[in-house]
Amino acid sequence: MISVELLRHFSLFDQQDDAMLARIANLAEERVIEAGGTLFSQGDPAKHLYLVVDGSIVLTMNVGQKGAQTLEELEPLGKDRVVGWSSMVKPHVYKMGAYAKQKSRVIAFEGAKLHRLFDENPSFGYYFLQKLTEVIGSRLIGKCVQLMSLIDW
User: pTM value?
Assistant: First the structure.
C-alpha cells in the first residue's frame, strides 16, 4: 500500500488531511517501469493517472501526416511529476504517449475510482482539478513552443 506520507509530497494532495490521504492511498498502486517500457501510447483509452516517485518519464507526440514525426519532451518528467492527466478529463484518451527513459517507480490511480471519490467529496475534487489544470496548462505551453520551433519562418 502507498503511504500517506509519500502522497503528501505531491502538490495534487498537499492540502489534504490524513483521513482523505488514507482514502486516496487505498486507491493507489505502485508500479515499476523498466527503462524503455511504455506507460501508455498516444490514442489509447486513458484509464490511469500516474505520479512519478523516482526515475524519468518521457512524453511523446506523433505529429504530421499519419504521425510521421515523433516529438519528445525536451525535459523528461522526474520525481513528483504527474503523467496521464487525460484519464481525468473527457474523452479519456491519452493525448501523448509516455515511456520510461530509465527504470522508474510510479504511483498509478484508476481515473474512474478517483472520479467516484470526487463525487463523494466535491471539495477534494475541486482542489485536485485546480492543481491538475496547472499541469495541463504547463504542458500545453511547452508543446506549443516545441511545435512552433518546427515551423520554417
Answer: 0.86
CA nearest to 83, candidates 60, 112, 67, 113: 60
In what helix (H) or strand (E) does residue 110 lie, and over which residues does it extend? strand 97-110
Contacts of 65 (CB under 8 A, 6+ apart): none
C-alpha to C-alpha distance for 121 and 41, rounded to whole angstroms: 31
SS3 assignment, position 91: coil
Which contacts (CB < 8 Å, 24+ apart) does range 121-130 have? Answer: 121/20, 124/16, 124/20, 127/15, 127/16, 128/12, 128/13, 129/88
DSSP letters of 6-66?
HHHTSGGGTT--HHHHHHHHHHEEEEEE-TT-EEE-TTSB--EEEEEEEEEEEEEEEESGG
Please state, in angstroms and rounded to a whole number, the distance separating the CA atoms of residues 110 and 48.
5
Rounded to whole angstroms, the Cα distance separating 138 from 29 reads 26
Give 56-80 pLDDT, tens digit per residue.
999 888 876 665 566 666 567 888 8
